[in-house]
Amino acid sequence: xxxxxxxxxxxxxxxxxxxxxxxxxxxxxxxxxxxxxxxxxxxxxxxxxxxxxxxxxxxxxxxxxxxxxxxxxxxxxxxxxxxxxxxxxxxxxxxxxxxxxxxxxxxxxxxxxxxxxxxxxxxxxxxxxxxxxxxxxxxxxxxxxxxxxxxxxxxxxxxxxxxxxxxxxxxxxxxxxxxxxxxxxxxxxxxxxxxxxxxxxxxxxxxxxxxxxxxxxxxxxxxxxxxxxxxxxxxxxxxxxxxxxxxxxxxxxxxxxxxxxxxxxxxxxxxxxxxxxxxxxxxxxxxxxxxxxxxxxxxxxxxxxxxxxxxxxxxxxxxxxxxxxxxxxxxxxxxxxxxxx
Amino acid sequence: xxxxxxxxxxxxxxxxxxxxxxxxxxxxxxxxxxxxxxxxxxxxxxxxxxxxxxxxxxxxxxxxxxxxxxxxxxxxxxxxxxxxxxxxxxxxxxxxxxxxxxxxxxxxxxxxxxxxxxxxxxxxxxxxxxxxxxxxxxxxxxxxxxxxxxxxxxxxxxxxxxxxxxxxxxxxxxxxxxxxxxxxxxxxxxxxxxxxxxxxxxxxxxxxxxxxxxxxxxxxxxxxxxxxxxxxxxxxxxxxxxxxxxxxxxxxxxxxxxxxxxxxxxxxxxxxxxxxxxxxxxxxxxxxxxxxxxxxxxxxxxxxxxxxxxxxxxxxxxxxxxxxxxxxxxxxxxxxxxxxxxxxxxxxxxxxxxxxxxxxxxxxxxxxxxxxxxxxxxxxxxxxxxxxxxxxxxxxxxxxxxxxxxxxxxxxxxxxxxxxxxxxxxxxxxxxxxxxxxxxxxxxxxxxxxxxxxxxxxxxxxxxxxxxxxxxxxxxxxxxxxxxxxxxxxxxxxxxxxxxxxxxxxxxxxxxxxxxxxxxxxxxxxxxxxxxxxxxxxxxxxxxxxxxxxxxxxxxxxxxxxxxxxxxxxxxxxxxxxxxxxxxxxxxxx
Lengths: 341, 590
Prior knowledge:
The structure holds 2 protein chains of 2 kinds.
Chain A: H1 2-23, H2 33-60, H3 74-105, H4 121-150, E1 159-166, E2 169-174, E3 208-209, E4 216-220, E5 225-231, E6 236-240, E7 245-249, E8 255-259, H5 265-269, H6 272-288, E9 297-301, E10 313-319, H7 321-330, H8 334-340
Parallel strand pairs in A: 1-5, 4-10
Antiparallel strand pairs in A: 1-2, 2-3, 5-8, 6-7, 6-9, 9-10
Helix pairs in contact in A: 2-3, 3-4
Chain B: H1 10-15, H2 20-50, H3 57-63, E1 67-68, E2 71-72, H4 74-110, H5 118-138, H6 168-197, H7 210-242, E3 252-253, E4 256-257, H8 265-299, H9 306-320, H10 335-347, H11 349-363, H12 372-394, H13 397-403, H14 407-437, H15 443-469, H16 489-519
Antiparallel strand pairs in B: 1-2, 3-4
Helix pairs in contact in B: 2-4, 2-5, 2-16, 4-5, 4-6, 4-7, 4-8, 4-14, 5-6, 6-7, 7-8, 7-9, 8-9, 8-12, 8-14, 9-11, 11-12, 12-14, 12-15, 14-15, 15-16
C-alpha cells in the first residue's frame, strides 16, 4: 500500500516537472542585467544566512565540544587548537565576506566596463609571504608539541599498560611489580590467556589483566601512563578523546602513546564544562525516557573494524594514587589467574 | 559541410566512438549515473544516522536482505559508506569530471583535431565503463559489497571472517578498481601526449588557458600515483587469494591463528595514500581549472596572476606527492616521519591561498555576468576556502591526534574536495553544455539548483565540524551506545534534513540537463563571449573539429575588456578571440 503511495508521489513529481518545463521558458539561457542584479543581491542575502549559521554554530554548539583536556600533555593541544581556530575563523570571516561582497558589488551592467588588471607582483608577494610566515609559526608550535607527546623515552616511573584490541572489545594488562610487560603473541592465545601472553617469559607472571567481564581501566592521577597497543585481528584505533589521545592498534606490531591524567573522574564530573554538557545530555535522556548519564572517561574504537565497530568501548576511571594502589593490589596476577584453572 | 572521411554507423558514432567529443559525453553520462547511485546511498545512510531505530520503507525497498523491518544492518551501513566514498571519489569526481572535461576541452582548447590516439581514448572509456559495471554488480553480491571503508585497509578488507563484505564483494571492488586505474592511466597518458604534441600554431604553453594547465598537471599526477594504488590492489589480491603476507601478520580470528607472518598493514596505508592524497588534487585541480576559465569569462576580466596560478598548480602537484603521511600520523609509523609530513602538508596552504586570493581579485572591479556556471564557480571558491582552512587543524600532527577519523575530518574533506569539485563539475556542465550538445541549459532552473545546493552543502557540512569536535567517530552505525554523544543527535537530524534537501535538489539539474538536450534553445557559436579556441568551432559537431584549417593563435586566453588609452575597447568588444592577430604595438603577456 505504502509502495503504491510512493509510486504515486513519484508520478506526481514527474508530471509537475514536465509542467514546470512548459511554463519555464527553456529559451531563457543567458544572464541579463536583471539576472545579474537579482543574483548579486542573492549573494548578499546568502552572506547573511551563512554568517548567521556560522555564528549560531560557534555559540550554541560550543556546549557539544569536548571539555578541557584531562591530560597534562593535552593542555598544549587545546592551546594550539584555540590559536589555530581563532586564526582560521578570522580568515574565514574576512575572505567569505570579501568574496560575496565583490559578487554583489561588481554584478554586471551593460554600460559597465571591467578593469583590465592582469597582474601585480606586489600583491602576489604579499599573499604568499603572509600565509607563509603565519604557517611557519603555527607548525613550529605544532611540531614542538608533537615531539612533546610522542617522545616517551624520558618518562620517569610510568604506569605501563598494554591495551589489546579485538573485534569488538578491549582488554588491558598492567605491567606488574617489575613494571615490564611479558611478551605477547597471538600464538599463545588459549583458554583464559585471551591476550596471548607468553607465560614462559619471566616478566609475564606478575602482569595483571583486567577482568574480561565489563573491564574498567583504572589510571592514577598525576603519573605518566605509557600505553602499548596491540591488536588481535584487524586494525583498531584506541581513541581517548578526553585525554587528547589516539593511536592505532596494528596486528603484528606494538604501537605506543602516553599521557599524564590531570583530573580524577570525580574532579572531572564537577568541572563546569562537563556539568553543562551533562545537563544538556540528561535533559535529552529524560525526554527519551533513558537513565540519567554520569560523566566517565572512555576508550573507544575509531578505526572501522567490522559490524559492531560502533559499540567497541571501555570505561576509564582516574583516581588518586593511593586509591589506585589499593585497587591495584587487589588484582590477581596473571600467574595466579592462569594457574588456578 | 563537414569533411567526413569515412562513413559512420550508429555503432561507431554513438557507442564505439573514437571522437573525443562523443567520448566526453559518454564519460559525463556514465558519471552522472554513478553519481545518482552514490548520492542515493548517502541519503540512505544519513537516514540511519539521524533515526537509528526507525523503520523506513525506502530502506526496505532498496536493501533487500540487508535490512530487518526497514532498519538497515550494521554491515550494510558500512558497505554504503564504503561504496559511496569509492563511487564519488573515483567514478564521479575522477572519471566523471576529468574524463568529461579533459576529453572535451583538450583538443578544442589547444587547437587539435582529436586526441593523440582516438583508439586509446575509446579504450579508456570502455575500461571505465567495464569497471563501473563491475562496481555496480558488486552491490548485488549476496554477502554484500565491499565494506571496509573506501580506504580498504587490510586486514579488515582481506579477511571475510572479519566482515562479510570482504568476500566476493571485495574481490569485485579490487577488480573494478584495477580496471579503473588502467582506464585512468591510458586516459592521462593520452592527455599529456596530446598537450605536448598537438598544440596549434602559436599556442605556446604559456598561452594555454588555465583549464589546460590544470588538466595537464592532473594527468601527470595521475600517471605518477595511480600505478602505486594498482600495486597495492594487486598485492592485496595476492594476500587474499594466494596466501601471501604482504600486509598481514599475527592474526587470530574466529578462534584460530592464521598463517600470515611478517607483513604490515602500515605498508598498505603507505601505498594507498601515495595515491590517496594526490587523488584529492586529481579531483580538485580540474575543478579549479574550470573555475579559472569561467570566472575570467564571466567577470569579463583577465584571470588575475596567470603565471602565479600556473606556479600554484605546479607547487600543489609537487607537494601533493610528498604529503601522504598526514593520513597516518597515528598509524604507528615513526613519529619523526610525522614531523616531516606535517611540514610538507601545511606548506600546501601557501599555493592554495594564492589561488583563492587570485580568484577573489579577479572578481574585483569586474563586470560579473551571473550565469549559472559563474554562480557555481563562486560557490566553489567559497567551499574551497571553508574546507581548506580546517586543513590547518588536520595537517598539524599534534592536533590531528584528537580529531583524526572524527566527523571533523568528514566535514573538512567533503567541503574542500567533495563539494568544491562537484560545484566545479556543475559549473563546467552549465558552461560547456552548448559545446557538448549544441543546446543551452535553462538558467532559472540553474539558479534554483545552485542556491539550494549551496545552502544544503553548508547546512550539512558546517555543523558537522562541531559534532566532530565533540569527539564523535565517523563510520559509527549508531551513536546510541554512548550517552556522551546523546547531545549531537539533534544536530544529526538537521544534517540529514539538509542532505535530503541537497539530494533532491539535484533532480533540478537532471531535469534541466536531459530536457535541455531535447528542448533547449539552439546554442550560438560563442554564447558566453569567450576568448578560447573551442568557441571558434561550429556548433554542430564535426570530425576534426574545424572545417578547413585549424586556426592559428596569436595571444593568450584572457584579453577581456582590453582598452586603449581613451578607454575604448581595443578590439571593439569586451573579448578578443585568441585567434585575433595582435594590433601594432599591442602587448601580449605570454
